[in-house]
Amino acid sequence: MDSSAACLSESIIFKSLDAQDIDSLVPLFSRRTVMPGEILARAGHGTQFFFLLEEGALLVAMQEGRAVVLNRPGDFAGLSMVSLNGTNTATITVLEKGAVWVVSCLKILDLTDHNTQTGAIIMDGWHQFCEERAPFCLTLAETGVT
Question: Could you tell me if residue 72 is left (phi over 0), alpha (psi between -120 and 50 degrees) or otherwise beta?
Fold first, then answer.
């Protein structure tokens, strides 16, 4: 298994997918080495990418002083945690040297927007991840997601 598939398989969000679904997601991601202080996304800018952490640490600084540090392989800076209606709602800063898997937000949103088993599994994993790491991302009134 290559490192992108391994990282997807470790992620709470994607680990419930079968091997064939994981393999179909791999081409959507590209690996990027990141350095401390690097800004991966800025609040208020258009959302282009989401990030799956392979190693290192990321600070996701959200509105109203909320923040979460992502530091486990498979942690995902994406969906309602960082974006609303195509605009970044959080600034993502690299805290520790490492690597991330970068994916187009439109590709992930397309996967989760359809009534498919894959989309449902990803969204179930997303809810589990948020419950553990950033429960405030699941509150509809706070994220604006309806």
Answer: beta
Residue 139 is predicted with a pLDDT of 62
What the block records as the tokens of 137 is 């991302």
Question: 134: part of which helix (H) or strand (E)?
Answer: none
Q: What is the pLDDT of residues 72-89, one digit of tens each?
A: 999 999 998 998 889 999
Closest CA relative to residue 78, chosen from 44, 15, 129: 129
Q: Is the pLDDT score of 97 beyond 50?
A: yes
Amino acid at 135: P
Q: List CB contacts of 138: < 8 A, sequence separation 6 or more.
A: 80, 127, 130, 131
Q: Which of 36-45, 106-115, 117-126, 131-140 has the lowest mean pLDDT?
A: 131-140
Q: Is there a contact between 5 and 22 (Cβ–Cβ < 8 Å)?
A: yes
Which DSSP helix (H) or strand (E) runs through 52?
Answer: strand 49-62
Strands 90-104, 39-41: parallel, antiparallel or unpaired by DSSP?
A: antiparallel
